[in-house]
Amino acid sequence: MKKQLFFPLIILLFLFLGTTLVVLYGKGYRFNFEKGRPDFNGTGLLVATSLPDGAQVFINGHLTTATDNTINLAPKSYDVKIIKEGYFPWEKNLIVKNEVVTKAEALLFPTTPKLESITNTGIENPILDPTGTKLAFTVASQSAVKKRGIYVLDISSRPILTLQSSSNQIADDTLYVFSKAQLAWSPDGAQLMATLSGQSTFLLDARNFNQTPQDVTETMSAVNSNWQKLQEEKRKAQMDTLKTKLREVVVENFSILAWSLDETKILYKASQDNVLPVVIEPRLIGANTVPEQRIIKKDSIYVYDTKEDHNYRILDSLSSSSKALNWFPDSKHLVYVHDQKVSIMEYDATNQTTVYAGPFVDSFVFPWPDGSKIVILTNLGNLNIAPNLYTIGLK
Q: At what angle do helices 220-239 and 244-253 cross, to 10 degrees?
């Protein structure tokens, strides 16, 4: 009878030990003999990825692996550098913790980006819609291809060969000189407001040609009221996604410049000197390990991550318009326009990379919806020609 019980107990014991070891291994525990005797220590996991992939991963200066790989590391701080030939390096100090997955996600930018013209007859007054997917502009020079007037291009709808051959004209100069109009988008991107030099204002359907443009010069207050209502509804919907305590912090301290496209991060200017309270307790495991800054200074620029309750200082101040700093489509990077340069940085202010240095007009810079390129307006320093739109390839 005892033998009949002994073997099943042994089997159960081995199963228990085996299961325990598998679980511990999955959590990062490893055997080692570094101290001259067997030891069983916990480790953390570092997941290294890059776009494009196939980059080298250096840890504390040592080539350790390639991207799209996971490695076990002892819990401590590491200098991680990701390098690929033809691209700017990515580097960050990361803290690996026991039984926690730490991510090194590198978006790499080419050292020699391709500059391509997408207009050739000259354009004026380009303006991007609130969704970042439609571009409106005016053409003042007559050509065999384009008539003078206002054009709209949906840059998310199809591959673009040339911007002007792919755009839709929504108004021409037959009745009014729309080619010299100042443009403004409605909050929903469905309409364009065109103000002429004589101070007449027209409301245009942004999707179709306007045979009889609607003159709203005398009803501007009603149009502005309607647009303001749409903006307030959008702001309220964004604020309603926040928990009550966090909403109070945002209202009290943030002058919001822009939400990230996934609406998980807020780019803002501090409205006062303060110390941001901790909203999420206990702190999240596996969150960004870059040191945050909860002491905020009035007029300095920050990014607040609503999911991780982390706050990062981006700039001491933003002297020019808020359009000089805005979100990249992946919601993890910012496009920063400064000193005739276009740079891209991570939302925690690390890895600032200059992707273009040269002349461009009025800080008009915006990313393509898929993040594959940056669009700028420039005459390449030649003041005798009208500016055109160019793309800066990022892949």
A: 130
Q: Are 84 and 50 in contact (CB under 8 A)?
A: yes
Taking residue 198's Cβ as centre, other Cβ atoms within 10 Å add up to 9
- For range 233-242, the mean pLDDT: 94
> In the structure encoding, which two tokens stand for residue 73, read together?
């590391």
Cα separation, 145 vs 164, in Å, equals 8
Reported as a single tens digit per residue, the pLDDT across 54-64 is 999 999 999 99
- Domains in the chain, CATH or no CATH each: 26-107 (2.60.40), 241-357 (no CATH)
Note whether 363 and 337 are within 8 A (CB): yes
- Show contacts of 144-149: CB within 8 Å, 24+ apart: 145/121, 146/121, 147/172, 147/173, 148/172, 148/173, 148/178, 148/179, 149/173, 149/178, 149/179
Q: What pLDDT, in 10s, does the model give residues 84-140?
A: 999 999 999 999 999 899 999 999 999 999 999 888 878 889 999 998 889 999 988
